[in-house]
């Protein structure tokens, strides 16, 4: 997908601090962390948001959710963590390539919205 920031990160055109990579998934540190640990987990294939998850591509989302606990363990988030995916303008989605935020390393706010 041209002009997609995260597709450019996948291609290596924009540098990132990678914490996990396999054939289908990339995880890297958020450039503006909102918690001591703030990692973004993305599919390498372009999926715009949760709204674009469907029967054909849902396996990648399932795979991402097997990768997330591995990253959490590697990051020593024994106390827990939050997984967030902003979808659309009301949620404040700014990058239109599906991504899951992993936030942890402190007691997170009780407010979800
Ligand atoms: P959203 O607001 O769409 O849920 O999340 C997008 C996230 O991408 C934000 O937390 C933002 O800090 C992060 N981000 C934006 N541009 C870059 C970048 O060039 N590199 C990295 N590592 N993160 C970015
Ligand atoms: Zn993309």
How does this model look, in words?
The protein has 2 helices and 5 strands; from the N terminus they run H-E-E-E-H-E-E. With 113 residues, the protein is α+β, with helices and mostly antiparallel strands. It has a 5-stranded antiparallel β-sheet, with helices on one face. The longest helix is centred in the middle third of the chain and has 17 residues, at 58-74. The model has no long low-confidence stretch (mean pLDDT 97). The structure holds guanosine-5'-monophosphate and zinc ion. Residues 5, 14, 16, 28-32, 40, 86, 92-95 line the site of guanosine-5'-monophosphate (5GP). Residues 1, 4, 6-7, 46, 97 line the site of zinc ion.
Main attributes of the structure:
single chain; about 110 residues; alpha+beta; 5-stranded antiparallel β-sheet; binds guanosine-5'-monophosphate; binds zinc ion
The total count of strands amounts to 5
Helical segment tally?
A: 2
What is the CA-based Rg, rounded? Answer: 14 Å
What pattern of helices and strands is seen along the backbone?
HEEEHEE
What overall geometry do the principal axes of the alpha carbons give?
globular
Helicity, as a percent range: 10-25%
Distance between the termini: 31 Å
Task: Detail the poorly predicted runs.
Answer: none
Tell me the strand order in the biggest sheet. Answer: 1-2-3-5-4
Unique ligands: guanosine-5'-monophosphate, zinc ion
The fraction of residues assigned to DSSP E strands is 15-25%
